[in-house]
Specification:
Layout lengths: L2 E7 L7 H11 L3 E5 L10 H7 L3 E5 L7 E5 L4 E5 L10 E6 L3 E7 L13 H20 L6 E6 L12 H4 L7 H14 L2 E2 H5 L9 E2 L6 H4 L2 E2 L2 E5 L1 H4 L2 E6 L15 E5 L2
Parallel strand pairs: 1-2, 7-8
Antiparallel strand pairs: 1-14, 2-4, 3-4, 5-6, 6-7, 8-12, 9-12, 10-11, 13-14
């Protein structure tokens, strides 16, 4: 089996559908996972994806924010969604790909600006979300099935995943409590970091650059918030990983860039 799978926080699929078309034209993923689609399912641009050949879809969205989608050129089975923290906020979609690989497309809450769950309900929500997903993987996915987990996980775990480890230690997305939580989630699913398999630390690698930067490329103050994890049985099948850094310069760009892996030759 060969499979090319990409993940991208698109920051509004309708606003940036031309960028999606460009990514597909340049990289031809078999499966594309999007986060922050920011549209209710009835308004999702399904016809555009039909024309692009992605006729197998799991769309899970809402008006204005959040939303995840799995878009595929190959059939998938048992599509489902899960809700966490007693909220129906469209953050987790699941499908079984050819070969029996269970795919999880996850959008972890950003967590606001203050890294204190007592003072910041958004940060408390982020930690609770991670705890609940971790407990679920630990209880429900310890059977050795092949899995891939992708998405905007909104945490940059390694020192080489941020432009300044020292300056960002107290900044939401790189705090020790978040890094510890993300590590627990990764271990609960038995996942291996597929991108770092090809680009090991200490090489720096980012997937997000703030809109606030006047010249994002010159300042290069990035963070690696977007991840692809695979279970150990798939590691030997990995043949490529790519971060589409140049897409951050495309017209009407998302502040995230796409990440892609290939399984098989």
């Amino acid at each position: 089996m060969t499979l090319r799978l990409a993940t991208w926080n698109i920051n509004s699929v309708r606003l940036r559908i031309d960028n999606v078309r460009r990514l597909i034209a340049e990289s031809a993923p078999d499966v594309l996972c999007l986060q922050e689609t920011k549209t209710p399912d009835a308004l999702f641009p399904s016809e555009a994806f039909d024309l692009l050949g992605y006729r197998h879809r799991l769309v899970h969205g809402m008006k204005g924010y959040n939303g995840v989608a799995i878009l595929s050129r190959v059939p998938f089975a048992t599509p489902e969604t899960r809700s966490w923290c007693a909220r129906a906020d469209c953050r987790h979609a699941i499908a079984v790909l050819p070969g029996g690989i269970e795919l999880h497309n996850i959008y972890v809450p950003a967590g606001g600006d203050v890294a204190d769950p007592e003072a910041n309900p958004k940060f408390a929500h982020k930690l609770q979300f991670l705890d609940e997903v971790t407990a679920w993987f630990d209880a429900e996915r310890r059977d050795g099935r092949p899995m891939i987990a992708v998405g905007d996980l909104n945490i940059a775990p390694l020192e080489a995943d941020v432009w300044s480890h020292k300056q960002l230690l107290s900044v939401v997305s790189h705090t020790p409590v978040e890094v510890e939580r993300l590590g627990r989630l990764q271990r609960a699913g038995g996942f291996v970091d597929a991108v770092r398999h090809f680009v090991p630390a200490p090489e720096r690698l980012y997937t997000w650059w703030s809109y606030r930067a006047r010249d994002w490329a010159a300042s290069n103050r990035g963070r690696r918030l977007d991840h692809v994890w695979v279970t150990p049985g798939l590691v030997g099948e990995l043949s490529q990983a790519r971060v589409f850094r140049d897409s951050r310069s495309w017209e009407r760009a998302s502040d995230h860039v796409a990440v892609m892996i290939a399984i098989g030759s």
